[in-house]
Specification:
mainly alpha; single chain; 57% helix; 9% strand
Length: 160
């Protein structure tokens, strides 16, 4: 009986951690990956913090989001697009960072829900209590966009 319970426990633990993200058509996947690529530019702008580049990259990300055709994902990104409009060169890094965190949470939800490949993963920093998406194939090391004084503080939260 103990062996049977152990076997079931191992099986259900495996299912809990299995990659069970929803599939997308190749066109839908390409659209979402284009959003993530545009987010890479915004992430890099935050990491080095250049206010004009942050504002410009935010609009590029919004343009990429506007091209998403998948209805559920489009609906998920609607609020993020309004937050991208709030990212401005005239605002403080903290104000823009809070909006970026909100956008990142939506992108992380999409990463966790839909199979967009293995290049992008969710990261977080417990010190600033914020999350972001990073291209793990290009930057395995943590690149915290929120804290210039601790640029590599945080951890990789997913492994797709």
């Amino acid at each position: 009986m103990f062996k049977l319970i152990t076997l079931f426990s191992v099986f259900f633990n495996f299912l809990a951690f299995a990659d069970v993200r929803e599939s997308l058509t190749s066109a839908q996947k390409e659209e979402v990956v284009n959003v993530l690529k545009a987010n890479e530019k915004l992430h890099a702008s935050f990491f080095k913090y250049d206010a004009k580049s942050v504002a410009d990259s935010a609009q590029e990300l919004k343009n990429a989001m506007n091209k998403v055709s998948h209805e559920k994902i489009k609906k998920l990104l609607k609020f993020s697009m309004s937050k991208l409009d709030e990212i401005k060169a005239s605002k403080t890094k903290d104000e823009n960072g809070q909006n970026y965190h909100t956008i990142s949470m939506a992108l992380i939800y999409i990463l966790n829900t839909y199979d967009v490949g293995s290049e992008y993963n969710a990261y977080s920093c417990p010190m600033v209590k914020k999350k972001w998406v990073q291209n793990s194939s290009k930057q395995e090391k943590v690149h915290n966009p929120y804290a210039a004084n601790m640029p590599h503080c945080g951890s990789k939260d997913t492994s797709f």
